[in-house]
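Lay summary. Proteins are chains of building blocks that fold into shapes, and those shapes determine what they do. In this project we predict the shape from the chain. Here is one chain we studied, written as its sequence of building blocks.
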Amino acid sequence: MAEQPTYGFYIGGQWVTPTKTMPVSDKYRGTTLAYVGSATREEVQAAIEAADQAFQSQSPSPQERAQWLLRSAALLQERRQDFAHLMAQEGGKPLKEALGEVDRAVQTFILSAEEGKRIGGETLPIAAQPGSEHRLAFTMRVPIGVVVAISPFNFPLNLVAHKVAPALAAGNTVVLKPASYTPLTTIRLVEVLAEAGVPAGRINLITGPGGSTGDYLLEDPRPAFYTFTGSAVVGQHIKEASGLRRVALELGNNSPNIVHSDADLTQAAVLCARQGFLSAGQKCISVQRIYVHQPVYEAFLAELVAVTQRLVVGDPQDPATDVGPMIDPQEAERVAAWLDEAVSAGARIVCGGHHTGALFEPTIVADVQPEMKLVCREVFAPLVTVTPYADFKEAVKAANDTVYGLQAGVFTHDLDLAMHAAKELAYGGVIINDTSAYRADLMPYGGVKQSGIGREGPRYAIEEMTDLRTVVLNLH
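And here is the predicted shape, written in a compact code that computers can read:
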């Protein structure tokens, strides 16, 4: 058997051999794919130093920065199959979904290149202020500095792109730490960025556990901005440890979706099943809580079960597979324990409910109560709950009964109900006639309450990653 490769860190334009390593596994087969570095405090400091020095040097023009990103997009497109197969291996993501993620990442780089050329300010009517008649004022946006990007396992390419591409487009430098479960895709992306011409020090990569390597990133005072996608617990820690420095935190959700009686039930069932179970439910906007108008509850539930039972569960490398493994067998055990607890308290498994290792069957649960973990926490698994409601406002109230607030979905053809939902649902995004899981990469994306702070989407991320500077000229 061939020896598995070892990948190091990318610091200051050079690949550096790590002092310690950790394995990366094939999430379906359980075999070791490769070894990556587990960064020490000194190695993290070296990456931050390289980024800081690069930022202090002369900044490339917006046109130069855009060219790096456009070349990166072209290389990603050329290597679409390679990236998709790697994501299927290390992340357990079904191949058809992985191919879609590559396509989205290409667009994220292109959008970031375009937005990076449109960074501007505005003139201020300062002459209208008494005593300032002979002054001219305007604002400009300037890069914030060293950006630390900490990315999650579930989208190891596109969510990295959403952090790195806007940061580079804005003129910042980056220290990137991918999730320990899925670092190989990110390593491959950094190779693409280097090949595309990103100068030494402007993109730096380290790998390692969040509990050590991640904390080393927070200890250093030089990073100006932290962008993180992951759990609310870690997000809270980052916010507390970062002090007065700015952060963008994309955290959890237990996504509600309301299906009213006037909706297209077949469409709603297909979309809820697909977006509840694809990626093994491991998206922070995956469908989790479904509230269905009482008159169509049984009909919708039957449709949902029928669609769910047609999904193919198995090897993510098989092009026919719809649902692959969860990221770790322990995560599947956690969900099984939550499910057992709910059933003991009166919940009913409508379909699914079993798992083998990390492979969890798509599961539908009825007769749930708001206090059950399957309802009030983020399940992050291929499991949805279905609950009837009598009145639409009651459903909106139930949807809001959570500490989270990322995105919600509503199915109705009644404009009044749709607008009521848009006004009253306390979420960063309200999606009408589609699920909570809809996201276009150019839109502002982010949540309220414990779902986070700040917005992603290239234009909005660039605003987060730049400082607004006011310039006043005294012309008298």
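What the prediction tells us: The chain has two domains: 6-251+451-472, 256-443.
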